[in-house]
């Protein structure tokens, strides 16, 4: 175990250095297990960990009839991401994906654009013109029927993009509002029935250890955990979340009240720029020392 792992755990949890060191020792240097250990001991309370968002670029959402796409294109710097040529490239890629509907990234990269180039070659060519490495990182395409509606929302020029498919609904403004809600609330699941057994077990174990540490009576712990799991559902499941425009009602209740009992959200896709990518951090002191010899 080194300083790098301790620093990473501190960034994930906000816990103190010695607490992080002890948790890493106890978990055999497993970051996820160490974070759980800190939660069980009550050292950190939050279920969400602040993962670093580092990559630059742009997330875009576009629709064409009954087809819609959300995609992320990365650049090395924020300066290039604001460049008109880069933004035009993102829009061209979005149009191409809408029209050709590739099944995955590999299929997309070898598909041929209107100018005769493959997507991969076209991105490389634009990288040379713009002067930075550019990559089509990911995309997802959704299809709907005439009786359905897309909710498309892009936050702050491309930092977050959300695409939502609402069935049995024609209210585009409502669907867009739901996508805005998803952008702000970051649900992991559509509804509580979709929460994985692994996540359920993990959360219940953490709550159990916390309550034991707090000295709660054993015969009360199960009921308290049920209440905590309901709170978990309201935080991570879109259907159960309080609606951002009226927190007195859940998203499911709001949708059925406005669009009718047959309306439901079939799927949402939320891309946040750079999530899961760690940008290499410059060690300026080391660079200066190396330059000075």
Structural notes for this entry:
Helix content is 47%, strand content 20%. The chain is of the alpha+beta class and 293 residues long. Among the domains are: 52 residues, Helicase, Ruva Protein, domain 3 (Orthogonal Bundle), CATH 1.10.8.10; 91 residues, Tetrahydropterin Synthase, Chain A (2-Layer Sandwich), CATH 3.30.479.20. The strands form three sheets. The chain has a three-stranded antiparallel beta sheet with strand order 1-2-3. It has a three-stranded antiparallel beta sheet with strand order 4-5-8. Strands 6-7 form a two-stranded antiparallel sheet. Strand 1 and strand 2 form a beta hairpin. The two termini are 30 Å apart. The C terminus is likely disordered.
């Amino acid at each position: 175990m080194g300083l790098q792992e301790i620093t990473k755990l501190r960034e994930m949890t906000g816990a103190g250095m010695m607490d992080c060191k002890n948790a890493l020792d106890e978990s055999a240097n497993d970051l996820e297990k160490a974070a759980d250990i800190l939660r069980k001991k009550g050292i950190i309370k939050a279920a969400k960990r602040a993962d670093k968002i580092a990559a630059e670029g742009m997330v875009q959402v576009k629709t064409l009839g009954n087809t819609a796409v959300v995609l992320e294109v990365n650049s090395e710097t924020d300066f290039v991401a604001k460049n008109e040529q880069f933004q035009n490239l993102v829009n061209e890629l979005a149009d191409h994906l809408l029209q050709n509907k590739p099944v995955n990234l590999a299929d997309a990269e070898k598909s041929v654009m209107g100018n005769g180039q493959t997507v991969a070659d076209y991105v490389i060519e634009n990288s040379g013109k713009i002067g930075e490495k550019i990559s089509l990182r990911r995309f997802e395409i959704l299809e709907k029927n005439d009786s359905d509606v897309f909710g498309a929302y892009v936050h702050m020029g491309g930092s977050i993009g959300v695409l939502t498919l609402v069935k049995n609904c024609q209210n585009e403004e409502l669907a867009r509002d739901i996508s805005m809600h998803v952008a702000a609330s970051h649900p992991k699941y559509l509804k509580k029935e979709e929460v994985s057994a692994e996540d359920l077990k993990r959360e219940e174990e953490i709550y159990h250890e916390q309550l034991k540490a707090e000295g709660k009576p054993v015969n009360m712990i199960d009921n308290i955990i049920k209440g905590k799991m309901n709170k978990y559902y309201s935080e991570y499941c879109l259907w159960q979340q309080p609606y951002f425009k009226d927190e007195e009602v859940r998203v499911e209740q709001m949708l059925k009240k406005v669009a009718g009992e047959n309306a439901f959200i079939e799927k949402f896709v939320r891309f946040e720029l750079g999530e899961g990518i760690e940008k290499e951090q410059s060690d300026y002191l080391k660079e200066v020392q190396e330059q000075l010899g």
